[in-house]
Amino acid sequence: MKLIIATIKPFKLEEVRQALTDAGVRGMMVTEIKGFGAQSGHTEIYRGAEYTVNFVPKIKLELVVSDQVVDQIVETIANTARTGKIGDGKIFVVDVAQALRVRTGETDEDAL
């Protein structure tokens, strides 16, 4: 099993969610986050005053999938979230040692 952690632009969330649902993903966790990477924030003007926004709003997706589909899911996220502009996000894949569905007691891939 693998944990996929992806950061994407907020306006891409629904499109990515639909693509993952179509690819067979049955669940994911979504968190609104702020961060910066290569773009290092940006400058905005509010009521005539210029100020720097150091942290940019992002969405963090977390989902656990079986080893057999991890490459397909990563590709789905990347292709759907891509705008071609700076700040499109990152995807990390991490090994998962154990999973447990609390309600039923199912473990590992049965818990997915």
Outline the structure in words.
Belongs to the P(II) protein family. This protein is α+β, with helices and mostly antiparallel strands and 112 residues long. It has one domain (2-111): Alpha-Beta Plaits. The chain contains two helices and six strands; from the N terminus they run E-H-E-E-E-E-H-E. It has helices at 13-22, 70-81; strands spanning 2-8, 29-35, 42-46, 49-53, 56-65, 90-95. Helix 1 (13-22) runs antiparallel to helix 2. The chain is elongated, with a radius of gyration of 17 Å.
Protein traits:
6 strands; elongated; 112 residues; two-stranded antiparallel sheet
Question: What's the short story on this structure?
Answer:
The chain has helices at 13-22, 70-81; strands at residues 2-8, 29-35, 42-46, 49-53, 56-65, 90-95.
